[in-house]
Amino acid sequence: MAYSFPEEVLEYVFAFLSSDKDRNAVSLVCKSWYEIERWCRRRIFIGNCYAVSPQIVIRRFPEVRAVKIKGKPHFADFNLVPEGWGAYLYPWISAMARSYPWLEEIKLKRMVVTDESLELISKSFKNFKVLVLSSCEGFTTDGLASIAANCRNLRELDLRESEVEDLSGHWLSHFPDNFTSLVSLNMSCLGSEVSFSALERLVSRCPNLKTLRLNRAVPVEKLPSLLRRAPQLVEFGTGAYSAEIQTDIFSNLVEAFSGCKHLKSLSGFWDVVPAYLPAMYNVCSRITSLNLSYATVQSPDLVELISQCPNLKCLWVLDYIEDAGLKALSSYCKDLQELRVFPSDPYGAEPNVSLTEQGLVTVSAGCPKLQSVLYFCRQMSNAALIAIARNRPNFIRFRLCIIEPQAPDYLTLEPLDTGFGAIVENCKELRRLSLSGLLTDRVFEYIGTHAKKLEMLSIAFAGDSDLGLHHVLSGCESLRKLEIRDCPFGHKALLANAAKLETMRSLWMSSCSVSYGACKLLGQKMPRLNVEVIDERGSPNSRPETCPVEKLYVYRTVAGPRVDKPDFVWTMDEDAALRLS
Amino acid sequence: MAHENELNLKATELRLGLPGTDESEDMVSIAKNNKRASPESVEDSGSKANSAAKSGDHETSSASKAQIVGWPPVRSYRKNNLQSKKAESESGMYVKVSMDGAPYLRKVDLKVYNGYPELLMALENMFKLSIGEYSEREGYEGSEYAPAYEDKDGDLMLVGDVPWDMFMSSCKRLRIMRGSEAKGLGCAV
Questions:
Q1: Which pTM does this prediction carry?
Q2: Which of A425, B39, B53, B156 could disulfide-link A349, Cβ–Cβ 3.0 to 4.6 Å?
């Protein structure tokens, strides 16, 4: 059957397959389809940079044009992964520079990127177009200067949420005068001021610029000049949105915003002076995405703005919005799909704002399309969670952070098991869940029973025993990523469900009760897993085998134990794994 | 055994709480030991934290919360953004006050005052002088002294023209001028 079509025809057909899942399925049909597919795969997604090596990727897929690689585990965002753990980009770039001269796109998340890597990128790929560095670190603005200077066809430079050593704003001036291809620039994470005239000229000469996210250093009075030069902008991020109230600044802003008929997304808004918010009102009717998570503005001003945005689909905001503001949101924004409410005072002992579980209940009742939520609050009840679950069975992502660890239902003082149980039972399409509050093994029983589509689960300060973990590992069929901190889970569930770990991308456990001996056993039993013990107290061999390890990171891999480990990481049964691979 | 290790971990644990905040240490150990906190102990630890917050002075009340590494799960750049705001709001807004002819300057905390009348009264008390009534047209016409301030741009402005909040955010220092010199400042801005 396979040889009834010429290769070129099959290749043409396969080109229509964009999802990795489909391409993987196609490559399993027969040897010739495997061959044809691997030569025409252009986009690669590597969810864990240590699951595979650059050499293996390049050997199988010789004609790749776009790579997306993820490095450190998610809990690295909260300083739980020690500095120097790994996720270095350089080996990937060095290998790809030799084998993928036509590489166009590199998208990275939580990787350590050096200036050396950036320079190598800028010099190795003649047709390089897209660089997205999400939550990356290890580079300086000098690296950015290389990219600006050498990537003649660059379309996207997006530094979202990366930690950049900001030596100066001079890097932006390295874009050559004849460089006109920019479509997207996100420099919001940078501290230094860039040369404003260089920025103005860059914006003026790039007619396809659709996304411009400025950094805090750009003052509000400079915005009109940029907006006037880029009326085609779709996504715009301001700098610090404050200045002394001067009528001409305000009217210039109004005029400049009015000229932008295609604006859909707004962000930035550091240091907001509320009086300047109305300058945006006449674009608000088209706005679908609003990131106000840096705007330390009170609820009434927030409501004023939100009430102008009936087409809002995505809102990120601080808890200054309060329950009253969320009520207004639920009445004005019926198209809302995603809501994130961040805490303005995460370490304060007392609540500083009137934001409670009620706000979330109201929004879940009033916004029929709401499917993704991240909500920080100080109190929760089972009744509220049950109401939320019933109101909104279409949740895909539900991340709740009750700020006090192990906080019970504040009305009944019971654990929040039944509340979260209602969430997983009603929301049958739930893919991501983060738990908080007082929780027993019971909640994990509910999760294991009902959360069949759950792919990522985050647990903190919860559970009573290994039974809890066992429910999750044995019941959650779609589970890919499990991250656990400060839970009384030992080794029993882990060892009993060892095979499950090969079906997942990764498991993270820190401040739990998994003994060193158990880690060794797991490593021996499962040669295709890297069982990494991360312990800054020195070698686990210097302590009894029953001693729990500080942190454990387990992930499936075809690359064997990694060779770039720092001195506080040990891969269990490394020798045996090396012998088998 | 586990307890022994916990103690070790605590010694090396990265904490942002102030030394001597024992209540918060108890809370962390409750979090680790009590698998299911009974209602009484939850109430106890809750009220302990509250009393720590109330009995401590202003500076320690926000730090008395147990500061566990990576909890709540807020990313550093968000925390930094908020912390700088907090520092501003807690540290007071002291500006220098000079008076023409006085041998040395004084300092006042603008945050302490709710508006112009309070500030002017405080200045009158501090320097033993009278400032008189403000009018938009005449400034402090007829007074022996007139209050002026230097704003962010370095310009010398008459106190009272702009809303109080705007004044607070733009005032860099105060200068009490003699009424005779202050003529002409009445039509500033």
A1: 0.79
A2: B53
